[in-house]
């Protein structure tokens, strides 16, 4: 959000704020007044105890008794400072004063008593200044600092800012984003176009008696462009865009969330037609029957949201959009007709979608002829819009660092790796032995891949450590985007994953922690085969797991008895064991290639898929013709399924 929006936001809130501001002002004024009176009283007390009026003859007596230290003639008083005896030294010195009397001999008497005397000149000019200095200024200071300290509390409304969404509501008069900026979400855009028309002309629909949706739920993984889509909708319809995140509603104080919701809707209704966008709606809309224990605050907020959604008048043209990546946890009441009854899926983009997204973001970036965005799209299966936007930007930054005016394809590929695996970690130098282990591990993966029919060609092998923990990895490439996977392909994947560990075992006869990530991956696939895809002989087609959080980590939850779970584990183990054995056998039969390529990799640190295949064929004596075909292929179709990184993790 930029500044402008914030400003709009705060303008918006001024009206509703005035009243609370006034209350705050009054409270501060009263407080300052109290301090003022108190200080005056103290002063009075001090004066009273330190200054005493005496009669003129008492003054003369004092003079005679030589008890006067000095005398000051001021305005209408004679101030008398008594002598203090060295031995007594009281806590404070009392000054006496007395009025003037027509006494011509006073000066003479003073001289005689050897008393210092002087007349104080009343400076009428600085009187006002002095008055300000000592009476007004300190209180102004107190007032000012109190105002400064407490204002935020009043500003928020109520006490301590409770109850207003002011600070966090963002309003954009014009988002400036249109559907053209959202690439690869055609279905989502389609289902929102009628909403645009509705916002343009709500009356048309109201007249006929048509009811339009009050709310739509945008569902999809993070970074797929849900916020962008909502903004684009507002941009297309040219209406203001109110946005707030679900987590903003959930506060420490009970009742804050609810009044924020109320406030948001109130503000929006004044500006209708407009769009309200609630990000992370699951933060408020979590199911109330909750096994997570009660949460009064959230419940109140949710109830308020429900009643606001029921209450507002659609004919004005107000549409509420909400985004979530956990639709399954939402309270059913939110999804009832008249609330968020429409669901717009904003899923991860497919190949074409990725190409389009890359194009949108490459629009303003200078690129040379070597750039082929399709190739990059193929290499980034599983990446979402924000990843792709990020990659283009990384590539541009790399070109700048390299003092070039144009981005090259190699920049883009490097950027893909940076986004997936992190930056090269130049300062982590592997020891000689470790480097050797990592090299064999990675070549193990690559070779097992190459030795299996139907696996994805290798694009690159590297043992340059990356910031995200990988000590090395193999980038792999499907020849085309796939939506289905066969059992064989899954087994090939598992075998490939276990190839790293197999190579370590064969060459060094010892194993390292580097395979932990591989094992995790392999286990995940094997388990899914058994429990979700009906691919095991032992169980056949039975669903033993269901996937929760489909749009987040896709974690599966077992729903079977404990005995079955044990049997599942056994079956998974069996699959893994078979695959591992296969990997080991493949590598044992090709130890010569393994050694050669590992040696090369230790020297060069990075090998392209082409080089890898050349060495492989050289040793195997594979004829020229076939070679050309394959090289061509692996050159052209570069991709990396599921952006997976086979690594030797440094955990
Ligand atoms: P979400 O709300 O789904 O988490 P965002 O809308 O915040 O994702 O997306 C973050 C950024 O990623 C956007 O600002 C945009 O630059 C980019 N992006 C995401 N999806 C797309 C898309 N489909 N087309 C173009 N850019 C996208
Ligand atoms: Zn590995």
Short description:
With 651 residues, the chain is of the alpha/beta class. It has helices spanning 3-50, 56-64, 106-113, 124-155, 186-200, 202-208, 226-237, 246-249, 256-271, 282-285, 296-311, 351-362, 373-378, 385-401, 409-421, 432-451, 487-508, 516-531, 562-588, 591-604, 609-620, 624-636, and strands spanning 51-53, 68-74, 77-82, 95-98, 116-119, 170-172, 215-219, 241-245, 274-279, 318-324, 342-345, 458-462, 470-476, 545-547, 556-558, 606-608, 646-649.
Key features?
4 domains, disordered C terminus, Rossmann fold, binds adenosine-5'-diphosphate, Signal recognition particle alu RNA binding heterodimer, srp9/1, alpha/beta, Helicase, Ruva Protein, domain 3, 5-stranded mixed beta sheet, binds zinc ion, 6-stranded mixed beta sheet, 651 residues, disordered N terminus
Q: Distance N terminus to C terminus? A: 37 Å
- Relevant CATH superfamily of the largest domain: Peptidase M41
Q: Kindly state the percentage of residues in helix.
A: 40-55%
CATH architecture grouping of the largest domain: Up-down Bundle
Which class best fits the helix and strand makeup? alpha/beta
Descriptive account of the structure:
The protein is of the alpha/beta class and 651 residues long. The chain folds into four domains: 125 residues, Signal recognition particle alu RNA binding heterodimer, srp9/1; 178 residues, P-loop containing nucleotide triphosphate hydrolases (Rossmann fold, 3-Layer(aba) Sandwich); 70 residues, Helicase, Ruva Protein, domain 3; 219 residues, Peptidase M41 (Methane Monooxygenase Hydroxylase, Chain G, domain 1, Up-down Bundle), CATH 1.20.58.760. It is 53% helix and 12% strand. It is built from 22 helices and 17 strands. The strands form four sheets. Strands 6-8-9-10-7-11 form a six-stranded mixed sheet, sandwiched between helices. Strand 12 and strand 13 form a beta hairpin. Helix 5 runs parallel beside helix 7. The chain is elongated and about 135 Å long. The protein starts with a helix and ends with a strand. The N terminus and C terminus are likely disordered. Bound molecules: adenosine-5'-diphosphate (ADP) and zinc ion. The site of adenosine-5'-diphosphate has 17 residues, from helix 7, helix 12 and helix 14. The site of zinc ion (ZN) has 8 residues, from helix 16 and strand 17.
